[in-house]
Amino acid sequence: MTDLKELFLLDPKIIFLNHGSFGATPRPVFADYQAWQRRLEHQPVYFLVEELTGHLAAARQALGDYLHAPADDLVYVPNATFALNIVARSLDLRAGDEVLTTDHEYGACDNTWQFLSQKKGFAYVRQPIPVPVVSATAVAEQFWHGVTPRTKVIFLSHITSSTALTFPVAEVCRRARAAGILTIIDGAHAPGQVPLDMAVIDADFYFGNAHKWLCSPKGAAFLYARRDKQPLLEPLVVGWGWGENRPWTYGSNFLDDQQWLGTNDLSAYLAVPAAIAFQAEHDWTAVRQQCHLLLRDTMQRIGVLTGLLPIYPDDAGFYHQMATIPLPQLTDLKGLKTHLYQQYRVEVPLVEWQNRHFIRVSIQGYNTSHDADALLAALAQALPQFAAG
To answer: What is the pTM of this model?
Structure first.
């Protein structure tokens, strides 16, 4: 695999296998981000009042081309959790309604739905999806067993945080549209890790982070809303973009309501086109494939070390550049994570899910077989010290 590590700002003394948590930004993309910040500070009034609307339109167009979505159906937001709050807080859900999800969802998003369900009285229903998984068809069927006449909304991760499992979101959205159920897809880990086409997925709402696998600066994410569903959304922050006395406009209520949150540094949004261009320049399709192959090999090696089977089959489309790999039950999961970092300088998350212990390994373009070897050597020495029983 081509070593791209020098193009990133990561500490070279760290074995960084945790791209999935917050991403990492390449040097040229970070330089573009800082250039936008300098332009803002050079003449803040002119930049924010006269120039920003055009710059944001260009940044949305670049993102729209990347996602195969109309630019005016996209709005930049700070992060995926923010996007979910826009949608979930806007919906008229009441007692007797159900929001159907899985038991693989991200904690902050679970919290959003739990908070609102307690406030509004609807039910937040988690459909179990056991592992190991076998086929996308079987996963879709298992999930659909949770649908009832009370199901008003389906909320589903495209790629989950806890198990790194890729759900068959296009198939679920197809069934939901036929059944008249609203769909909200959490794509936090998808942009940059898998090719995306909003028309193919056909969700009512889809949000994703640009700062993770797309490698933009932190604080850049997006919300996509189908044109016919945009009137359902209310502004999460009411400011100058709302109402009839707008000092400027982005061209639609959807954009005006959501894009202007008050004075803010939007440089991370404006640097997203540079992140897209960086990956195109470095043939990221090939990079992703190389990363997947290294991850597959690493997962197999960990399985040999532990004697445990993986939670998804190889090359069935269930994992890409991030995989959650079973570990034996441990006496101190947090202690092992700390030990791996302090003793071996390995940055990798350890996960507890459904009372089982896992390690979640991310492989990005800057990772090499040396990183995988270092992880395996560390695990071989450390696991016996933390094994239960």
So the answer is: 0.96
